[in-house]
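Priority: low. Protein: Nucleotidyl transferase domain-containing protein. Input follows.
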Amino acid sequence: MVDVNGAPFLAHLVQQLVSQGVTRLVLMTGYLGDQIRAHFGNGQRYNCDIVYSHGPEHWSTGRRLIEARALFDERFFLLYADNFALVDLQQLLSFHLREDTNITLTLAPKGGGNTGCFHDGRVGCYDPDRSS
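Result:
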């Protein structure tokens, strides 16, 4: 709930998604979950529907996905609430469908990290224990 230009950082992410046509969000909360729910409510003030799946802070992303799976549609975007990336979601979805893959990731080039890619851009390995 860090303030950025007078609004929580997460509010900027929600506004970015809504501006690209996203109408339903599932917020998987742990840390500050009560504050997040109090601020965003059902999403009406952001022109979207927001539902919540709350779990302990120590849950991994995978565990949160498993616990919230009944709330997702067949296809969904997963974003981390502490990252901001200007991504055209319609273009990303078109790429995903064209490539006919199970999962599509967006990654920013950097040294090191826990994801390794082949020259064609496909993910070659992922090591959750390796420092990102």
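The two ends are 23 Å apart (CA to CA). The helical segments are 9-19, 33-40, 61-68, 89-99.
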